[in-house]
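User: Here's a chain of 242 residues. Predict its fold as tokens.
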Amino acid sequence: MSLGMFSIFPIPHVWNKNAANLIIPFLPIVGAIIGLFWWGLSLAAVNLSLVFSSVIIMLIPFFLSGFIHIDGYMDTSDALFSRRSMEEKRKILKDSNVGAFAVIMLAVLFFLSYAAVTEILMRKVNLLMLLFIPIVSRSMVGLIMLRLRTFSQNGYAAAFKNNSKSVYSAVLLIYLAIVIITAFALLGVKSFFTISLMVLVSLLTAFYLYRQFGGISGDLCGCTLVITELCGLISLSFTGAV
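Assistant: Prediction complete.
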């Protein structure tokens, strides 16, 4: 169910509403699969020219997730930059039309992602960190969904939280701890800086959006995930987890 919802990988159509609350603790597993493909495909892409390599590598995680999180990022951008009241922001968030702010912020996202990946390739940074970035982002978003109140009871975030258990948060923290230890062992102390920055940015983004909208939703979590992964790439381009 998690793979079918948050990736493009073909799986049998299975949906059991009684097990929907398990989607959140399995998010890091989806992230691990996406990260594995991101890392492997990126190793193949580096044999191309710098421009094509950068474009392909930056787009891989978006394609593998079916662009579902970018949808939330764009919807959030439209609502947030409208600078309207909280209720109007919520209405804009649910509007399926694409506004100017969504297009502008998508361009900003792509430009920054392209610049970060280009720096990573030029500095010959170890691409193994690409395996861990999607796991960290999804572990954090899972925790945010579990711990913060949703402003609507009709969205995906609220549906996934129904009948959730406190142990799910512990599971997500264990995933995060495993990633930190493994990345540190393989890539050194610089990987710890990248992961720490991702965790910090994820929390700051989530709390800011929570205050702006009076709660969280699936779109806001998707926006948080996209920004968290972007900061992971930018951090990697500067620190170089070699």
